[in-house]
Amino acid sequence: MTAILKSNTLRFQEAWDHYNPGAIPFLLRDRERFLNEKPYRGLKILHNTPLSLDATCKIQLLLMAGADVTVTCVPFLRPQTQPLAEEILYNEGVPLIVDHNNISDDFDVILDCSAVFAGRLTPRLGAVELTQSGTNIYKVLNPQSYKVISVDDSRLKGLETFYGTGSGFLNGFSQFANESVASQEFLIFGYGKVGQGVAHFLKESGAYVTVVDVDFDRLAYAQKRGIRGISFEAREKILDAIQNSFAVVTATAILGFISKYFTANDFRCVKYLANIGAEDEWGDQFESAQILNHKSPVNFGTPEPTPMKYLEAIFHAHNSAIDLLLDTELKNGYHGVPQDWDLKILSDWCQFHNVEIEDVMKELGNI
């Protein structure tokens, strides 16, 4: 018997009540399908994501689909979990295991984030990864005993990382710094999905933005968008940019990145240091108190880290990728999401929100 059948689900409804139905069309559609079809009946699922309030809606959908769900969260992001989310799970009888050493290797599916369980557990069917940092790990691991699907390896993920995380960063930074970003110098390490979104929203708010990246195509794209780009090979230029920055932001998706190449002294003149990645990208040379939100992604210091409008389609994809794992024709090993599957969800999102898909595709064109 699944946990959802042991309760009256009143506490779960508290989470759903936080969102306007117009912001969660995918989740409402999934709720109807999962209740009627029970597509994941009998599957044992380990759910590992940041445990914010919105995630409880995502978790309940899996229970509605008939799954037996155990919940944990990314260790680095545990301090950012919302007490109400943990309270709801506890009251609804959903197992929540914080200590990963107490999680047994007995799952059909792992819905993973940051590849926390890559190489540690062996799911019978496979894993679905949510982040770029985790995708990089699973690509190297490329397990041959189970399947891995990366939701991050998609155009769709740009809704969250470009629009959602970009706007979430601006909200989080403004809350912690309590200063306007207009006319201030920002330096961003990394100009991938997340870095592009952060740079876009900062520039729209009147900030001066410089980005550092190893990819010359990305740097050329930044220049087209009116953003100064510096190659990672140009160390002296980077050091000069650091000294002239009001704030430095990490968006590399690499654990401990800054400490590998720079010292804390290099950043002594910078007023604000921030991270927007799912890992501690500053590393051991920096105390947590030196970084906004104690090294956790700065947007996770707000009640809604990512606006639900940009997040729920990713929640839908993360859950529904279980359908891909159930496809017997899919071979073991690493896979991005199928292009037609990716485009269908993105197209549906545009229809739901009355947005031209050509405009979205153009904005996400270099991601």
UniProtKB/TrEMBL annotation:
Its cofactor is NAD(+). SUPFAM superfamilies: Formate/glycerate dehydrogenase catalytic domain-like, NAD(P)-binding Rossmann-fold domains. Residues 161-305 form the S-adenosyl-L-homocysteine hydrolase NAD binding domain. It comes from the Bacteria. InterPro entries: Adenosylhomocyst_ase-like_sf, Adenosylhomocysteinase-like, Ado_hCys_hydrolase_NAD-bd, NAD(P)-bd_dom_sf. Keywords: NAD, One-carbon metabolism. Belongs to the adenosylhomocysteinase family. PANTHER family: ADENOSYLHOMOCYSTEINASE. This is Adenosylhomocysteinase.
